[in-house]
Amino acid sequence: MSIRSAQSIRSAQSIRSAQSIRTAPEQHEDVAAPVNAPHEPYAPETTTPRRRRRGGLGIDRRPGWFVYAILGVVLFGSAYPFWWSFVIGSRDNQALGSAWPPLIPGGNFWSNAAQVFDAIPFWQALANSLIVSSVITISVVTFATLAGYAFAKLRFRGRNGLMVAVIATMAIPTQLGIIPLFILMRQWGWTGELGAVIVPTLVTAFGVFFMRQYLVDVIPDELIEAARVDGANMITTFLNVGLPAARPAMAILGLFTFMTAWTDYLWPMLVLPNNPTLQVALGQLQSGYYVDFSIVLTGAILSTLPLLVLFLIAGKQLISGIMQGAVKG
Amino acid sequence: MSSLTQRQRMSRLDVKISPYLYIAPFFILFALVGLFPLLYTFVVSLFDWHLLKGQGDFVGLANFTAILEDRFFWNSIFNTFSIFLLSAIPQLIAALVIAAVLDANIRAKTFWRMAVLLPYVVTPVAVSIIFSNLFGDDYGLINNLLQNFGLDPVAWHRDTFASHFAIATMVNWRWTGYNALILLAAMQAVPRELHESAAIDGAGAVRRFMSITIPSIRPTMIFVIITATIGGLQIFAEPRLFDPATAGGVGGSHRQFQTTVLYLWEMAFFRQNFGEAAAIAWLLFLIIVVIGFINFMLTRRIATGESAGPRRMFLRRRRRPREKQADKTLTTPGTIAEDVKL
User: Fold this and answer.
1) What domains lie within chain A, and their CATH numbers?
2) What angle do CA A186, A189, A190 make, to 5 degrees?
3) What is residue B176's DSSP assignment?
């Protein structure tokens, strides 16, 4: 096992830690430490159990203040627009005009929130978003796992060709098909129905690709053969061998699918103007000739809270998912 | 005895049919809701087609010629590319710097990674609202600060370049951290021996970054550029909500920040001309495919120049950051489809 794979395992520890086959990191640590120790007088910690990515020669030193200064700037840039919106959203329009931005929230947040609830059907939109995103997530993850498992572990005629077809479709911007979809939805009388938003995204090529890439490494072929020898039929084998192994990747794919469905704006805006999802309702708040920007900002904060909570709970999985190559949905 | 062969036959059938049953839902649904609409867009573009009145006469390629002579279409193409370049280039540079910083042996890794990713959970609609206020022409935070320092306020909404800059900032804010994490994953997969031997030869951190890290992660950088292209050419929410009260939100009072998808939307739902809107959709589709193809050819060129072999480079691009998990595929020859497995 080479160092390349050892490192990538570390970068994806949380999802791959279950794999007992790969023990390279420890090996690599043992070999690396003594070789590099003589070159590295400043690093007495070579013997500590903390995992080190790089060995001696100073390339593994703790970085200086400069690195933390950059990180601090990035943190400020990430968090400040959000904080600023909250501060303005908890005050009134006057706060926008003050020369130096106020730093501390005011006391108007709840009264502003009440006005948001009056201006747009917030709770209905929240429920709609939850329903739409959940159904899409369940569908995408289910079908992607099934197809990904077949592509990764089953032998059948045309497998390679069909997989290339899946990859090719990943690059197709299907969002551009909105005009016929809209014509269809009107013919079916689906405009205003949540189904109009759900149906076009029931499957994604990326999901199939993602599950296949994961499962191809994770499930040993012997395990499937053993289950087959024991007399399990194909679907039982999938349920007992494939599904348990796929669970971590399913969680990550689910997380991304949910976020993508949640943030979608163009298509829901077209078919659900009167029964909006949260993003559509928020867009209406912004477009509604609203003079009171603090209320619009309150709406932006309120609508972000669900994903923020999700981020605090599942942020680590999100990070490892991105680092494993999840792409923009 | 015959029941046993019956069972065997069933089992063989099970083995043969099951894979197709598992992949069928994906292909059927994708054909219906993904592929068919895209192809049907072309059919619509060949007709006079009104939003309310429906299908009219067959007009051949008249919709396409009308769009190609439409200065608003070219205006939208210019705006789209301008915003795209203003977002893609600074974003890639910033993401590289952030990834390099995260790649250092810092404390509290997870905390910093989450800090970098935080903007990603703010939806594009919310981002548009927040930044259209930050960039407010009269009372926006940024103009307030500029004036505090004795500078002239900028007409962020009225001026073409300034509005492109503001919209690009929204895109950058949301995606830089995300791309930084992808690049970070690639950086962590660079073999440490390379860094060590360079360090022995006296290369400093900056030199190692330029001469080792950047060339090693080039496939991932190209991947990031390609996904940024596909997404960047379809920007909608940000320009739509940047100034929704002016001119119905079609991208500014004189379309100074109207992107192509925004123009598509205006054509379809304001002017209710589905035929020409479908032509816009197809032209944009072609542009995206052509740019994707150019990217692909460029990748091959670079790969050949590095004597890595064009095919392998293609696969490495496909493979993305987590490519490095399975070294065996790097050394095992096989068909393209086989190599696609990581």
Assistant:
1) 3-47 (no CATH), 69-107 (no CATH), 118-323 (1.10.3720.10)
2) 85
3) H
DSSP A268-308: HHHH-SSS--HHHHHHHHHHS----HHHHHHHHHHHHHHHH
Q: Which chain B residues are within 8 Å of A96, Cβ to Cβ? A: 133, 136, 139-141
Q: What is the pTM of this model?
A: 0.81
**What's the gap in Å between the CA of B304 and the closest CA on chain A?**
23
Is residue B113 a contact partner of residue A71, using CB atoms and an 8 Å limit?
Answer: no
Give the tokens for residue A290.
């609203």
Per the structure block, which two tokens stand in for B103? 């790649």
Q: Is the ipTM of this complex over 0.95?
A: no
When CB atoms are compared, the residue of B38, B106, B120 closest to A177 is B38
List, in sequence order, every residue forming a beta bridge with A223; answer none if it has no partner.
none
Taking an 8 Å cut-off on Cβ atoms, the answer to whether B129 and A319 are in contact is no
| Contact flag A263-B124 (C-beta cutoff 8 Å) | yes
pLDDT tens across B18-54, in order? 999 999 999 999 998 888 998 899 999 999 998 888 8
Note whether A66 contacts B: Cβ–Cβ < 8 A. Answer: no
Domains in chain B (CATH in brackets) are 2-45 (no CATH), 71-339 (1.10.3720.10)
Burial A279-315 (b: 16+ CB within 10 A, else e): bbbbbbbbbeebeebbbbbbbbbbbbebbeebbeebb
The backbone region for A57, taken as left when phi is positive above 0, alpha when psi lies in -120 to 50, beta otherwise, is left
